[in-house]
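Usage

Read records sequentially. Each one opens with the input sequence:
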Amino acid sequence: MNIRAHRTVTAVTLAAALVAGTLAAPAAAATTATITLTGSSATVSGSNVTVSGSAVTITAPGAYQVSGTLTSGYLKVDTATTGTVEIILSGASITSSTTSSLQVANASAVTITLASGTSNSLTDASTYANADEPDSTLFSTADLTIGGTGSLTVRGNHQDGIVSKDDLIIQSGTITVTAVDDAIRGKDSLTINGGTITATSTGGDGLKSNETEAGKGIITITGGTISVSAADDGIHGENTLNISGGTITVPKSYEALEAMQMTISGGTTTAVATDDAVNAVEEGLNEFATSSKAFVKITGGTLLVDGGTDGFDSNGALTFAGGTVVAAGSATRGGGEGAIDANGALTFTGGVVVGAGVTSMAVFSTVPNTGQGWVAPRFSTTYASGTIVHVVSGSTVLLSFKATKSFKEVVYSSSKITNGQTYDVYTGGSVSGTSTGGIYASGSISGATKVLTGVTAGQYSGGMGWM
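and closes with the structure output:
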């Protein structure tokens, strides 16, 4: 059982670190002990460390520098004294043949600092002697913070890669995790403020916070360069997912971003999924029912999503209030699937939104008739990937979009569109300038074909209609 006393003091200290930025370099801490791994065992210079064969245990708060190689053992933190344990990995490689390679059994809080210029690695066993806990290569029962400017490679052969049963914060560092189940999991919460993170799950989720209790199960991303490939969800917050910064790429997933409540206010996110790319779901609720709790809200940033079923799917409300969004829905599955799918209220109030697929808006509720204008042309034929579409007012080109998948419908919302007015739609012509998910800075209808005339903004006749 981990020590919970003085957690407020720890949180205050941590908050100060977050304001200050990246964690301090290892030299800033007075080292309690230096641990040198020697293959099958270790030597220690300092206090509060015990060595029993290939088992190395830290028994009190303090700063511990670890280097060398442990070929068949583990490093453990087990202290009944309140205070933070800092583990400075400085060229350390730990492999366990029986359990987790770095485990926190008992502590107030633990910080892992990746020393500048060093490469570090952790590898666990495929089968653990204890079937319950620990259950990951780097496992903590206490709050866990990872920072520094070095690198860490984690291989999860048993289940997960990195786990904290409390709060997990990644401040900085180059962190690569590959796991047979979840790659990185903070049960109560997972916060990423920086670093370069590559997370690969071959059988579970990439980034995850799975506590169901209210106020927990939260993922917060404020910065960093993050790449996630997963067999299941790319990024899964049981209750909440907040993205306000960073560069996030999910090249492979079943569902890329999933939470009951999701807010994206910044950063650049590119996500690909075989099912829904962005999914807000209330667990236990029928998928056709409308949730009063679930929502997706986009207020800023750039979000480029590609779903094998829906680009966006919300059991509840879906709001586009800012930023730039490009959503590709299914190119083959019609009916209830679309680039944008909402059981609750669908709202456009700001930003630029382009969606394309066999269906552009598969809404259950009434389509929006207030807020920012939108137009949703539906074509008589399916156009191939790479087709250029222009939305035109008179002779002014308002949108030039080059589709990444085949489509039959497009939806476009921006401050350039006024509900109730009519627009013409062309295919062909040319595009030029910078592309954001297929939206080009400029385009020309010279040589293009006018395929739709007088499409009224704010009206929609495609999709599966509304109930």
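Summary fields computed downstream for this record:
- The two ends are 51 Å apart (CA to CA).
- The CA atoms of residues 60 and 81 lie 6 Å apart.
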